[in-house]
Every structure is written in C-alpha cells, then in structure tokens.
C-alpha cells in the first residue's frame, strides 16, 4: 500500500466518522430553530414575560422528548426489536389504571384536591417498583429470559387495560370526564417544583448513560457475544431496565402517557443517525424528539392555532407508523 493509498484510506475513515456528527448538527440546528419559533411566534409581550410563560412548557416538552426517546432506544437495544417500546410492557396501562382507581376510590372532588407532590411521588414509586419486582422475578427466578419478560409485559398491559375499563364503567359521567382529562398527555399544567425534581433525576441519569454508552453497544450484540466480551450480562440488563423504568415513569407521571412517541423517534434516529453507536443514537433520538414535540406544538398552537392536544396527533401518526412497521416485517 502506497503512502497515497494510506492517506486516502485515513481520509475515508475520517469522513465516515464525521457524518454522524454532521447529521447531529443538522438535527439539533432544526431543533434549535423549533425552540426559537416556539418562544417567538405570536409574542405579544416582552421576552421576560414570554420566557416565564412559555419557558416551563418548553422545559416540559424537552424533558418528555429526552426521556421517552432514550428509554425507547435502551429498551430496543436489550430486546433487539425495533417495534417494542416500554409502553408494550404495560407502563401506560398501569398509569391509566392508577388514575381510574384513584378517582373510583376517592371520588372526583377528592381526586382534584390531592397534593400533586404526593400523587407524583406515589405514582412514580409504584410504577418503578412494580417493574423492578417484575424484572427481579423474571431474571433471577426464570433463567434471565428476556422474551418471557416481554410476553408477561404484554399480558399485564392487557390486564391493566381490562381492569381500567371495568372501573370506568362504574364511574359517574362527571368522574369519567375527569378521568379522560387525566389520561391524555398535557404539557400545560405541570408543576414547576415537580419539573425541577424530574430534571435533576434526568441529569443524573444522563451522566450514567453517556459514561457507559459503550456498554450498550456491546449489549446490542446479543447475550452470547456480550458474555464472551466479558460483560456481566444479567447485572447490566437489570440496571438498564431499572433506568428505563425511571425515565418512563418520570415522563408518564409528569404529563401523562404518549403511546407511540418513543416508537416514532427511536426508529427515525436509527435511520438518520448514520451510526449504530449509542454515543450518536442518544443525542439523535433526543434531537428528533425535540423537533417532533416542540415543532409540533409550535405548528399546532402558534401557526394553526388549534386547541387540540399534541399527544392525540402524535398517537395517530405513531399508530400509523407502527402498522407500517408490522406490515413491512410481514412482507419481508
């Protein structure tokens, strides 16, 4: 190999490494544009008032985009399936069951008077604790079978939805209206202190994510390859699942369930990242999530001036995308 060939080869490697960075720069440039438009469009007051009024909502959108996207990528990494998301494990169904159960037990008036801090803490602990117990049982007592975990998650999700449907039939019309309002994701009525607490948890989680991003690259290779490379597979998967539970519980208890957002942004990140390494996938899925949520909210509220909730539109588009993925796999 001549020196010119070596120079050309090194240039190709350098270009290949720069492509994911360029793609990230484009996506985050688009995300920054969406943020700027969200803050500036139809601004009828000064920047100080606008930031105070729209800033909390923007932080909520950023938090949900990040947590849902990262949790979905992590879950698909350890399950090796790009159709599965944490919602398939019954997370959203458990949240809906909790809301219907609280309204049924305490009544609509008492439900509206519950402390948001106690409610948020209780819901987060229940959701994280339930899944950690499930993981503990399946991985330690059932031979670490990840496919069994997914199957049990599907069954539990169906059970939670059936119980919630039964409770809904026993609610009076006013309580049922309150329940419907509680199960649709809302980015407008988030408590500032809960948002700050959630952001602190996300920052700590992010430090762990980006420190061990190479571990997730190895887990993506499969159980046998990961063990052969010296990775403690069971402990790593359990820790990853616990992290997924925390991230998903944070977003769900803060704003409500957004069923297909994770599926949508995770699959778009695989296509647009230009690399399978998690050090590129994590910022890519977060950027795409910001574009979808902040850009969608900007178009919906400040351009079209619709009063509809963004989560309904995302679930509609994500549902179509989910069907397209299933049909695509069946045609292969």
UniProtKB/TrEMBL annotation:
- Protein keywords: Cell membrane, Membrane, Transmembrane, Transmembrane helix, Transport
Subcellular localization, as worded in the UniProt entry: Cell membrane
Residue ranges crossing the lipid bilayer per the database entry = 21-39, 59-78, 90-111, 117-139, 146-167, 193-212, 280-304, 310-327
Q: What membrane topology does this protein have?
A: Multi-pass membrane protein
Its primary localisation, in coarse terms, equals: membrane
Extract the Gene3D superfamilies matched here: ABC transporter involved in vitamin B12 uptake, BtuC
A Pfam short name: FecCD
| Coiled coil (residue ranges) | none
Q: Which domain of life is it from?
A: Bacteria
Record keyword Ion transport present: no
Similarity-based family:
Belongs to the binding-protein-dependent transport system permease family. FecCD subfamily.
> Under what name is this protein listed?
Enterobactin ABC transporter permease
Please name the source species: Corallincola luteus
């Amino acid at each position: 190999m001549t020196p010119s060939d070596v120079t050309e080869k090194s240039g190709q490697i350098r270009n290949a490494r720069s492509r994911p960075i360029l793609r990230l720069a484009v996506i985050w440039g688009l995300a920054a544009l969406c943020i700027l438009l969200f803050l500036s469009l139809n601004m009828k007051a000064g920047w100080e008032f606008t930031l105070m009024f729209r800033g909390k909502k923007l932080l909520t959108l950023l938090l949900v985009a990040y947590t849902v996207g990262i949790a979905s990528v992590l879950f698909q990494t350890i399950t090796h399936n790009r159709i599965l998301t944490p919602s398939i494990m019954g997370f959203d169904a458990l949240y809906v069951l909790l809301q219907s159960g609280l309204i049924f037990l305490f009544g609509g008036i008492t439900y509206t008077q519950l402390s948001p801090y106690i409610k948020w803490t209780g819901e987060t602990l229940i959701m994280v604790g339930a899944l950690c117990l499930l993981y503990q049982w399946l991985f330690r007592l059932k031979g670490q079978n990840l496919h069994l975990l997914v199957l049990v998650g599907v069954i539990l999700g169906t059970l939670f939805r059936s119980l919630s449907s039964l409770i809904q039939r026993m609610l009076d019309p006013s309580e049922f209206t309150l329940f419907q309002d509680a199960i649709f994701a809302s980015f407008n009525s988030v408590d500032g202190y809960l948002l700050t607490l959630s952001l602190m948890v996300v920052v700590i989680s992010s430090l762990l994510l980006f420190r061990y991003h190479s571990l997730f690259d190895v887990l993506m290779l499969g159980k046998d390859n990961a063990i052969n490379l010296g990775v403690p597979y069971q402990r790593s998967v359990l820790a990853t699942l616990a992290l997924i539970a925390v991230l998903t519980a944070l977003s769900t208890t803060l704003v409500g369930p957004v069923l297909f957002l994770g599926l949508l942004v995770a699959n778009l990140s695989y296509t647009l990242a230009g690399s399978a390494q998690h050090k590129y996938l994590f910022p890519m899925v977060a950027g795409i999530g910001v574009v979808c949520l902040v850009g969608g909210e900007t178009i919906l509220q400040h351009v079209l001036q619709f009063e509809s909730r963004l989560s309904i539109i995302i679930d509609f588009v994500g549902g179509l995308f989910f069907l397209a993925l299933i049909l695509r796999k069946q045609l292969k």
